[in-house]
What does this fold into?
Amino acid sequence: NAGVTQTPKFRVLKTGQSMTLLCAQDMNHEYMYWYRQDPGMGLRLIHYSVGEGTTAKGKVPDGYNVSRLKKQNFLLGLESAAPSQTSVYFCASSSGQGGSFEYEQYFGPGTRLTVT
Amino acid sequence: AQSVTQLDSHVSVSEGTPVLLRCNYSSSYSPSLFWYVQHPNKGLQLLLKYTSAATLVKGINGFEAEFKKSETSFHLTKPSAHMSDAAEYFCVVKQAGTALIFGKGTTLSVSS
It folds into this structure.
């Protein structure tokens, strides 16, 4: 049981390049999330998904796209990378979010992205 | 709208002394509150959570937190710090139907 995994662990991009970050979970969780972490800012939600085939915007969605074609995978895409997207990206998953709001989010180890 | 404020960006303690990391929250409804820990170059791990049961919540590694509604606080404490406690700690608030709102983090340093 690997939990939440992220690939790649590190990446350096040039401005304007594109890339996709992959998140996978083996806990059969319905909900998945992408956050970015910047110094002194905590974690901020980019996009999230409440189930296979669904996505929704979080607090800082601009410049990112996501897809959830399979329940276990949540992809984060950068179509045209900018230096402002230099950050550490974390994926998380949880079993639910609705009426019982104490569902714990499980986090992956993070992807460190640098855009030059 | 809900929000969370961690009152100290950096706390330094000596090994064996108590730890206090302060967190205040703002929420229109009864929130769920969490503390997460992040060790250097690692992901986030849940320390403890409050979900409207007992106001004193015990977590892993000897940490505990007390929910005080009148003070809108959820401070994290530990009686005796260990070197391995050095990490960044995040206070998090969640309402039903919304995602997690993270504080900006408190870096805990532990000296021998």
In short: DSSP finds no helices and twelve strands in chain B. The domain at 3-111 of chain B is CATH 2.60.40.10 (Immunoglobulin-like). The radius of gyration of chain B is 13 Å. The interface with chain A takes residues 9, 32, 34, 36, 41-46, 49, 51, 90, 94-97, 99-100, 102-105 of chain B (CB under 8 Å).
